[in-house]
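hiii so my PI (J.) wants the whole complex modelled not just the main chain, which honestly fair. so below is everything: two entries, each one labled with what it is. i double checked the lines twice but i was tired so who knows lol
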Amino acid sequence: MLSVEKLSKEFIIHTRRGIRIPGFANVSFEVTAGSLLAVTGPSGIGKSSLLKCIYRTYLPTEGRILYEAQNGETVDLAAAGDWEVLALRRSEIGYVSQFFHVMPRVSMMDILTEPLTARGLEKEEARERAARMLSRAGLGQTLWEMYPATFSGGEKQRLNILRAIITKPRFLLLDEPTASLDSGYKSRIMDMILELKGEGTAMIGVFHDRDALAVLSDARYDFEGQQPLGGVTGALGECIR
Amino acid sequence: MDPVGEERFALRLEHLTVRYGDGCALCLAERAQAARARQSGNRCPRCGTVWAARDVSLKVREGEILGVVGESGSGKSTLTQALYLDIDPAGGAYYLSSYERGERDVFTVSPQQRKYVRGQLLGMVYQNPHLGLRMRFSASANVAEKLLAAGSRHVGFMMERTNALLAHMEVPVSRVKEPPRYFSGGMQQRVQIAKAVANNPPVLLLDEVTTGLDLSVQARVLDLVKSVQRDFGVTMIVVSHDLAVVRMLADRTVVMLNGQIVEEGITDQIMEDPQHVYTQTLVNSLLL
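here's the output for the full assembly
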């Protein structure tokens, strides 16, 4: 479903006299429907940057990201227009960020039902689906109408994942989805991710957690083996020197 | 790549140029303009003409929220004023899909048609509520004025509609008969929004809606803007120097500097991976 070819990212920092910071280079892999590719490697080597390039939060410097969309067309996400990327994000590509940003004064329920109603689901149906998922994830009814700004880290993280998977995206990017969860909630969330995978969603994930890595991943892309650059931290150190 | 074609653009602006002053041979020479902007800002060093907007082109899809960011004096307000037909541009063309199917340049229409476009097809929320509201008339009269201008004559209907709108904008029913000059800044802003959406315009322009409001009121106004977009499905242009506001609302963002657009892209890409030197400076100055 997704094929990444020789993808590279380099940051040019104009405010620091145009120094160039390598993010990652020459990454190639493929992800098929219903499988999860885990991206592994030490901190700072470019795992999150890779995910952000695929989601187009970062503009890739070189290479291609060929995505086979629902309508059968193949789109190069590295070169597609903004509207096209936005449309794909709205309809079939999901992303769970490492850190959770919330709109102030939007209740948890509304955060979950909004993407559903935007896709044309009736409000009642959306609420029902959201309620089922919230209960499964262990987020009690007392929290449903509250604003997530006051939630604990684990609660926010679960909400963050639910928001991405409630629409059943065809392709999902997961950046440390289980990082701040205790083992009980972790296994519930992993079950939900496995279920979605079983329904055919292709996924790319970054996990530091070994259990999650072992349970969820079908294939791995190891940055250390593939990447001769030495990572951002090393390169950045050199630039500053 | 894009099969939907032009008709899905709610708004197209092509090569907008606004200048204050007559210009001279030096600054009128088009090819030199871009280079000059880099050197000396938007003011011509020889004749003093200020180029408030220079060759600004925009396309906004229906239902999209476009953010416009930039420092003071970068041309953000000039752009909104031109889009609301408040000022006469020196050059450029402007098409609205809701007006003559987007085939007629709105900058060139007659004064009557211009009034119709402003009253029916566009909504505007100014940074300064004094520009958008009549401070001595009641809040409901302010909203009703817009309905009257649209040709509404049934008092009962107008009362009902204004009260519903103001209630939607969280202006308490008990206060709709009071003039906005007795309201707080946040409330005035909400009355402005009610007025702006009264005729269900397909395009809404918001110029620094949250500037000068305290944080909790900002949040309410932002929610309101978001819900207006959801409930009314309008296309919006959100101008702000506050990147957090734009990040929260906008699908795409353009960055202005010296009256020109220097970068445009998906909002999170502009914020997290800015390409232009000015955008990088702007993003780096964010307090997080």
